[in-house]
Specification:
This protein has about 150 residues and is an alpha+beta fold. About 20% of the residues lie in helices and about 35% in strands. It contains 4 helices and 8 strands, in the order βαβββααβαβββ. An 8-stranded mixed β-sheet has the order 2-3-4-1-5-8-7-6. A hairpin with a 2-residue loop joins strand 3 and strand 4. Residues about 75-80 have low confidence and may be disordered. It binds ligand V0V and cobalt (II) ion. The site of ligand V0V has 25 residues, from strand 4, helix 3, strand 5 and strand 7.
Amino acid sequence: MTGVGAEGIDHVSIAVVDLDGAVAFFTGVLGLRQTHAEVNEREGVSEVMLAGESGGAQVQLISPVVSGGAQASDAASGGSLNGVAKFLSERGSAIHHLALQVADVEVAANAARAAGVRVLSERPLSGTKASKIVFLHPKDCHGVLIELVQATS
Ligand code: V0V
Ligand code: CO
């Protein structure tokens, strides 16, 4: 294994202001199919996973959830913003992160640290479908927020 040992692309994540509208576009216009949806309370996001007929990498749509079930447009207008709401208020809907598959996220995170890349949590966090994830700082990854994903076994 070289470095972090990324094995492939798990998902490309897009932060969107209008989650329902984005799902309608990615399914109805682009032809992907929704495979999963969940709310990740810790990250403060509502997320939808989409995949194409041939499988391969997924597309993840994320939008902030704020208390009371309000949406990104409300979060962006004031109050304390979570990371994704802040991102949306600064950039609008845009590609947010690239998630790479790894066999063992703790080993991968240590390899990233050894390469001088900032890992944004000391321990792995819980991601989509109970996967184990860590994030790498975009400033250490050529401007791209990278997520490392160990799928649930
Ligand atoms: C911020 N920056 C980004 C970025 N977000 N650059 C590329 N891609 C992004 N997504 C830049 C920003 O423009 C600043 O650059 C700099 O990084 C510092 O940003 P900041 O606005 O001051 O924001 P911070 O420092 O408060 O937070 C940024 C980070 C934060 C990336 C550290 O958002 C974070 O910890 N993210 C990891 C968690 C996360 O994103 N969760 C949501 C997805 P300049 O202006 O200084 O040049 S959850 C998920 O995907 C799950 C659950 C899953 O897939 O299973
Ligand atoms: Co993700």
